[in-house]
Design goal:
By secondary structure, the protein is an alpha/beta fold. The protein has 26 helices and 30 strands. Among the domains are: 217 residues, Dimethylsulfoxide Reductase, domain 2 (3-Layer(aba) Sandwich), CATH 3.40.228.10; 138 residues, Barwin-like endoglucanases. Belongs to the prokaryotic molybdopterin-containing oxidoreductase family.
Length: 766
């Protein structure tokens, strides 16, 4: 193919060729809708943002007293690889020896590679487990609340609902799709491990052509594809549960709730109905009540409820809704509403969590297992919910609750991070800056000079996927890709595996970590898992070298048979749910027994608490901090496509015309968004596609403070997490609430600071 080699990314399979200093990318020919994010890849080969040599922060290297306070503003010294590896090994030896593995936090977020072997999260966890263990995190920033509530209500996360409704079923059978929080097609550009074919657009278009009706419930009009002619209900952010309750009220009031389904397949409905109809608290959750909360008219609510009862209806709830205060509630209430309609398990009907959030959700399941690198056993019991990192570092020894457990934050002395950028994912970045000044040592493997690298003590340059061989494969995607190396490592960058192997060797653990295999031998070894399963099932099962030469392998998929939901509906006794009752738990005795005042035994509407009201009340605008369309999280923000979407080098923020006019803001003005936690600069885009009283600023711009030593800094690039609250959804999940915050905005006055975060780092001589 003219020198082009196969490769893969989280946003699509492709072919690449590097010659004459240029990297050329061609989407996989079988992909009907390749992602524009592929346009960010060529910058990997030459960007000044890449880390080219190991570097150590001067204050840490010199052992200055209180040197951690200079993290984020200190200068760096480049060192040789042997020097860097000795520093890391010696520091690990010291902390393990003095404080044990419970003093080491192993951070990672899993998105750094689409490969099955060079997967930073697997590599760092395997490495630290070989050394004796580490404090881990659980769940994700994207769906932390759902990952805790769904197992209580339906069974294991990512099993019942996300493996029961396919795009094929929607295209052939769904009559009404009610999308709470939307189904933004931009989000389906990506999936962990890669996508060989982007199928969401044609599937939705096919459903619409057949006559399916779409209702979008979101403050953003473009949270669903424009060609679907969706009815837009611009709800006030954070009020979807009130709207869902009022729809449920109408169903009961007109006798359209499915009592037979509720009796046979659920437990606890009568107790929920007492709350719904006001018998419990004296408040009927009727459309008039909900209208005053959510901003949707009572008649519209009544009409929608009747339509849902009269059609094959699919309810979807997005990631975004559960990334807010009491985020467990909309997911739980969406399940309850689908159960009241009695359509769970029907073709194209029922409920699906986060359909449209990732590119492979809604595809058929694979019929064979994928290669997986063993991480060994972690003997350390201590863990935190992933979004509680700042709490952990700032509050060692303090108690917290999580999913029925009373826990304490560990006392972390060393943070080791490989893969991921916490200064993208985390909230209240000024607070995170303070937290990152607490540990004695922070070590990171990074590909580029992100803020996470700039807050570390030892920075080790890691390769990107383009600089190594790997196997690309993802759940629900039927194509395995031979990810062939496209470019030589930039500077002195090395694979995470090689870095960990050399450190393990210095600590007497090389053989245990590597099992005496090279990277290439590991690829062949891991491939054998899938090859063996293919052969056992009677499918073509080439050996590794044949697969590698061909470049790809089609994998078999399971039938589109409705999955666990259809089986449960067909015979709930033979196919019970893995819940305490074996049924859908509308009321959970388990959750009620925890005694939490912010997550009770059934879904309900929670008013913002008095502390939140006091802190947020005088900031009049909601800010929606959603996923960008120009990159995956913060990855490759320095890429050409990501940069092309900025205005004057800053992130765009969308503002409704009425809100802009009130503040004298014009299109493309540089504006300052602010609240009590901090502020950021962004470029205004006046748009009717955001609800009045709402602004939208995507996450992922690399955080760049105007003053790295200031207690409260301003991000001059446009990272909205300088404004978001670092608070858990509830005591049940302790998940991220970063989707929404309250702010005000004004035209920026004064001399504009230059954005330099994407231009790399300068160094001092040792």
């Amino acid at each position: 193919m003219d020198g082009f080699k196969p490769h893969s990314s989280h946003w699509g399979a492709f072919y690449g060729r590097h010659q004459s200093g240029e990297l050329e990318i061609r989407p996989h020919p079988a992909d009907p809708h390749p992602s524009l994010l592929l346009g960010n890849l060529p910058a990997i080969a030459h960007s000044s943002a890449r880390i080219r040599r190991p570097a150590v922060r001067r204050g840490w290297l010199e052992g200055k007293p209180d040197n951690a306070q200079k993290r984020g503003s200190d200068v760096y010294v480049e060192v040789t690889w042997p020097e860097a590896l000795d520093l890391v090994a010696n520091e690990l030896r010291r902390v393990y020896g003095e404080a044990g593995p419970q003093a080491i936090f192993g951070g990672s977020y899993g998105w750094s590679s689409a490969g099955r072997f060079h997967h930073a999260q697997s590599q760092i966890h395997r490495f630290l487990n070989v050394l004796g263990g580490y404090v881990r995190s659980v769940n994700t920033y994207s769906s932390g609340a759902a990952m805790v509530i769904i197992p209580h209500v339906l069974g294991p996360y990512d099993h019942f609902d996300r493996k029961s409704v396919t795009w094929e079923a929607i295209e052939r059978s769904s009559e009404l799709i009610v999308a709470f929080g939307g189904m933004a097609v931009k989000n389906t550009d990506v999936h962990g491990g890669g996508i060989s074919r982007h199928v969401v657009r044609p599937a939705l278009s096919g459903a619409r052509a057949r006559g399916a009706r779409f209702v979008l419930i979101s403050p953003l009009k473009d949270d669903i594809a424009s060609d679907l002619d969706a009815e837009w209900l611009p709800v006030i952010p954070g009020t979807d549960v009130a709207l869902m309750l009022s729809i449920a009220f109408v169903l009961v009031n007109v006798g359209r709730h499915d009592r037979e389904f509720l009796d046979r397949y659920t437990v606890g409905y009568p107790r929920f109905e007492d709350y719904l109809l006001g018998r419990e608290d004296g408040i009927e959750k009727d459309p008039q009540w909900a209208s005053g909360i959510c901003g949707i008219s009572a008649q519209t609510i009544v009409d929608l409820a009747r339509s849902m009862a009269n059609a094959r209806t699919l309810i979807t709830v997005s990631h975004s809704l559960q990334r807010a205060d009491y985020g467990e509630q909309p997911v739980w209430m969406g399940i309850v509403l689908a159960a009241m309609l009695g359509q769970i398990g029907l073709d194209g009907g029922g409920f699906s969590y986060s359909l449209g959030a990732l590119g492979n959700i809604g595809k058929r399941q694979l019929a064979v297992p994928l290669p997986t690198l063993k991480q060994f056993h972690n003997p350390v019991p201590d863990f935190i919910p992933v979004a509680r990192i700042a709490d952990m570092l700032l509050k060692p020894g303090e108690p917290f609750h999580y999913n029925g457990q009373a826990l304490r934050y560990p006392d972390i002395r060393l943070v080791y991070w490989a893969g991921g950028n916490p200064f993208h994912h985390h909230q209240d970045l000024n607070r995170l800056r303070r937290a990152f000044k607490k540990p004695e040592t922070i070590i990171v493997h990074e590909t580029a000079w992100t803020s996470s690298a700039r807050y570390a003590d030892i920075v080790l340059p890691a390769t990107t996927t383009l600089e190594r061989d790997d196997i690309g494969a993802a759940d629900r995607d039927p194509m395995m890709i031979a990810m062939k190396k496209l470019i030589e490592p930039v500077g002195e960058a090395r694979d995470d595996y090689e870095i960990f192997a050399d450190i393990a060797g210095r600590l007497g653990k090389r053989g245990e970590f590597t099992e005496n295999r090279s990277s290439r031998e590991w690829l062949a070894f891991l491939f054998e898992t899938t090859r063996t399963a293919l052969a056992a099932a009677g499918h073509p099962a080439p050996d590794f070298e044949t697969f590698w030469e061909k470049g790809e392998l089609l994998l078999p998929v399971k039938p589109d048979d409705g999955g666990p939901a259809r089986a449960f509906r067909g015979d709930p006794d033979a196919s019970p749910l893995p819940t305490p009752s074996g049924k859908i738990e509308i009321f959970s005795e388990t959750i009620e027994s925890f005694g939490y005042d912010d997550c009770r035994g059934h879904p309900r509407w929670f008013e913002p608490d008095s502390t939140t009201k006091a802190a947020e009340g005088h900031y009049p605008l909601y800010l929606v901090c959603n996923q960008p369309h120009s990159r995956l999280h913060s990855q490759l923000d320095y890429g050409d496509f990501s940069r092309s979407t900025k205005i004057g080098g800053r992130e765009p923020v969308r503002i409704n015309p009425a809100d802009a006019a009130e503040r004298g803001i014009s299109d493309r003005d540089i504006v300052r968004l602010f609240n009590a936690r901090g502020s950021c600069l962004a470029a205004a885009m006046i748009s009717e596609d955001v609800r009045p009283g709402v602004m939208q600023l995507a996450t992922g711009a690399w955080f760049e403070p105007d003053d790295a030593d200031a207690e409260i800094a301003m991000c001059i690039h446009g990272n909205p997490n300088i404004l978001t609250r670092d608070a858990g959804t509830s005591q049940l999940a302790q998940a991220s609430t970063g989707q929404l915050t309250k702010v005000d905005v004004e035209r920026f006055a004064g001399e504009l600071p230059a954005v330099r975060i994407l231009e790399g780092m300068t160094f001092i001589e040792e």
